[in-house]
Amino acid sequence: MQASQEKKPESENVAENGEPAIVIQDVSKSFGPQRVLDGVSFNVRRGETLAVLGRSGTGKSVLLRIIVGLQDPDGGAALILGTNMSEASAAEINKVRMQMGFLFQHAALYDSLTVEENVAFPLVHHRKDLSQSERHDRVEQLLEEVGLSGHSNKMPSDISGGMQKRAGLARALALDPVILLLDEPTAGLDPISSGEIDELVLKLQEQHTMASIVVTHDMVSAKTIATRIALMDKGKVVIEGTFDELQKSDERFVSQFLHRDF
Fold first, then answer.
1. φ/ψ (deg, to 5) at 190
2. What span, in angstroms and rounded, lies between the C-alpha atoms of 204 and 238?
3. Counting C-beta atoms within 10 Å of the first and last residue's C-beta, which end of the chain has fewer, N or C?
4. Per-residue pLDDT reduced to its tens digit, 41-84
5. How far is Cα 92 from Cα 231, in angstroms, rounded to an integer?
6. Three-class secondary structure of residue 7 per DSSP
7. What angle do CA 42, 92, 59 make, to 5 degrees?
8. What are the residues whose beta carbons fall under 8 Å from the beta carbon of 101, sequence distance 6 or more?
9. Tell me, what DSSP letter sits at residue 56?
10. Cα Rg of the chain, angstroms
């Protein structure tokens, strides 16, 4: 059933009025007998970064897919910029997705395209109003923003893993998103490259004031870039708060997670 368009505020107004850009309300999801998400709730406003942590199989990636509208929850709702993603029409979902940037776990660059062509991909498909020259200028601006000036003509195979992540971030920012979703942004990187990505994410958040969700196993990264941390176990949010608040928790699982590598 599609949501009534009259009852929903315009996406732009939701973002501008300070209301949460992302509202997850009691979301549940099962695959057969396995309950992957079990009543997950949280809000993220513009200017906030929520890091979602947990062991493998705790539903973190499924949660991202529900936020993007690629999967429907069995119960609850994902309200993204005022739109219920499981009730919205395809056109409404696409409108919301146009205001999202997504960095995939392995950057997911197209091997056959140059760095410039990869970053330009969303602009080619969604900004038909831009001339080729304007599109080129926008890509150059984005590459400079992520520290990749001078690498536009290289192929993904010719740059390092950290540079691929930077290119993926540039592509995620191409349409000036209100929401940024990062799936394991530091996975597979050495500590120095991971730190550089963390610094870049912090800089981009300061410049663009997005509502960001970072799914990660990297506690150092989460501590560095997140406004708040949501720690998940068995499909539930065990605790949500700042890193300092998590450190003060008496719950055994929280203490274990903070001091062990899963």
1. -70, 165
2. 29
3. N
4. 999 999 999 999 988 777 888 999 999 999 999 999 999 999 99
5. 31
6. helix
7. 35
8. 171, 172, 173, 174, 175, 177, 179, 180, 181, 210
9. T
10. 18
Cβ(214)–Cβ(182) below 8 Å: yes
Work out the angle at residue 151's Cα, subtended by the Cα atoms of residues 107 and 140, and round it to the nearest 5 degrees: 90
Residue 237 has what DSSP assignment? E
Name the H helices within the chain.
11-16, 60-68, 90-97, 115-126, 132-145, 161-172, 191-208, 219-225, 243-247, 252-259
3-state class of 157 per DSSP?
helix
Determine the 3-state secondary structure of 97 from DSSP. helix
Q: pLDDT tens-digit profile of 129-161?
A: 989 999 999 999 999 999 999 999 999 999 998
The structure's pTM equals 0.86
Please report, for residues 42, 98, 106, 247, the alpha-carbon distance to residue 78 in angstroms, rounded to integers and kept in the order given.
10, 17, 25, 29
Residue 218 burial (C-beta neighbours within 10 Å; 0-12, 13-18, 19+)? buried
Cβ atoms of residues 229 and 51 within 8 Å: yes
Distance CA 163, CA 146 (A): 9
- Could you tell me if 75 and 27 are in contact, meaning their C-beta atoms sit under 8 angstroms apart? yes
